[in-house]
Amino acid sequence: MTKLTLTNYVRGNTTLLENEFIDEYMTKANGEYVKVYLLLLRYMGDPSVELTISGIADLLECTEKDVARALNYWKKQGLVDYEARMQEIQEVRQESETVKRNMPVRGGRTAAKKAEELPPSQKNRENFKEVIHVTEQYLGKTLTKTESEAIVYFYDEIGMSSDLIEYLIEYCVENGHKSIHYIRKVALSWAEQRIQTPEEAKAVSGQYSKNSYAVLNAYGIKGRAPAAAELKFIRRWNEEYGFSSDLIVEACNRTMKTIHQPSFDYTDSILKKWADKGVKTLSDVKALDSLHLQEKGAKKAAVVGTARAARNKFNNFEGRKYQDMDELTRRLIETQ
User: Using CA atoms, how far apart are residues 141 and 152, in angstroms rounded to an integer?
Assistant: First the structure.
């Protein structure tokens, strides 16, 4: 991780910019350089934040080379001092280039020296080198620092084994996702499910992958793996209700059509009703819809019939007819 140390910053909740910078430096500098300096000034006042070149590049949506050029510029101006320390990950990346030239990939694994023949520290290093190499093979490029740091995170922080990381990369790429951000989300989802081996991951992904992503697509959710709570619903729909992917997607579509937003609870209510009615196929759903329309039509007909009968009863009342108004007046007087 590249560490940065800024020589001119203010601690506290407020970021202060000296007038000298505006008067003497800002007007002469590239606008992108100014953005980098201001970002450094902002976050270097917070000791809990450790900036990296890749992190700055992500925040400003620029390349790491752009950030490096800005840092070099401000260093020459005497305003910023930074120390770049190459981590082992970068050394591993260089060594993996040699591995690529000498070791073929077979079944997603390299023919590296057997891990059990190595001492523990060297074993971990060799395993990690292999993970980097396999990841680069699947992604079809040399890893960026951000991507490499993500692999370190999977390895050190989440505690994923090298075999599981390799399967993670393979799984994501085969499903059309090469973004390290997407891969990270899948890794975190597996960690929530306490998946520790490729076999466990294959069992879960093989059983629920198709249905899970079909559900997310039906909901219009893109770019992430299903969360643990969402997977519980999908397992229930598959295992407890015994529904196929087509039925589940149909329930999701009806959810969106009715409430116009994703809701696993609402979809579950639809599928539970179908399960109670003995629905097994889309044809059963159509038959249930048809029956519902018939019942609805019968109820409507009954209401209309009742109203019509009441109306006819009133119309059948025969009032007396008086041809002569004088005669009507005379009768009214006589009754008084």
Answer: 18
Answer left, alpha or beta for residue 236, where phi above 0 means left and psi between -120 and 50 means alpha.
alpha
What pLDDT, on the 0 to 100 scale, is given for residue 107?
40
Q: Which H or E run includes 209?
A: helix 198-219
- Cα–Cα distance, 272 to 285 (Å, whole number): 13
Q: From CA 214, how far away is CA 252, in angstroms rounded?
A: 9
Residue 202 structure tokens: 């294959």
Rounded to two decimals, the pTM is 0.37
DSSP string, 253-317: HHHHHHHSS--HHHHHHHHHHHHHTT--SHHHHHHHHHHHHHHHHHHHHHHHHHHHHHHHHHHT-
> Which of 50-59, 86-95, 274-283 is most confident?
274-283
- Residue 4 pairs with which residues in a beta bridge? 82
H-helix or E-strand containing 57? Answer: helix 53-60
CA distance 117 to 102: 20
